[in-house]
Amino acid sequence: MIAGPLPRGLADNPRLDTWIGFETPGRVRIATGKVELGQGVLTAIAQIAAEELDVDHQRLDLVSGVTGDGPNEGYTAGSLSVEGSGGAVRIVCAEVRARFLAVAAARFGCGVEELSVEDGAFRRDGQPTGFDYWRLAGDIDLARDITGGARAKSPEAYRLVGHSVPRLDLPEKIGGGAFIHDLTGPDLLHARVLRQPWRGAVLGPLDEGPLRRAARRPIDILREGGFLALMGEDEASVEAAAAVARDKATWSGGEQVPDEVTTGGWLRRQPTTDRVIAEGGPAAQREHVEAAYSRGFISHGSIGPSCALARWDGRQLTVTTHSQGVYPLRQALARAFRLAPEAISVQHRQSAGCYGHNGADDVAFDAALLALRRPGQTVRAQWTRADELTASPFGAPMAVELRAALNADGLPADWSIEIWSGPHGQRPGMSGAINLIGAEALPGAPPRTLPADVPDANGFGSARNALALYDLPAQRIVTHFAAAHPVRTSSLRGLGAFANIFAIECFIDELAEAAGRDPVAYRLALLTDPRARAVVETAAAMAGWSSDEPRGEGIARGMGFGRYKNKAAYFAAVAEVELDEDVRLRKVWCAVDAGLVINPDGAANQVEGGVIQSASWTLKESVRFEDGRPVCAQWDDYPILRFSEVPEVEIQFLDRRSEAPLGLGEVAQGPTAAAIGNAVARALGARIRDLPLSRERIMNALL
Question: Which of 346, 382, 462, 649 has minimal CB crowding within 10 Å?
Answer without folding.
Answer: 649
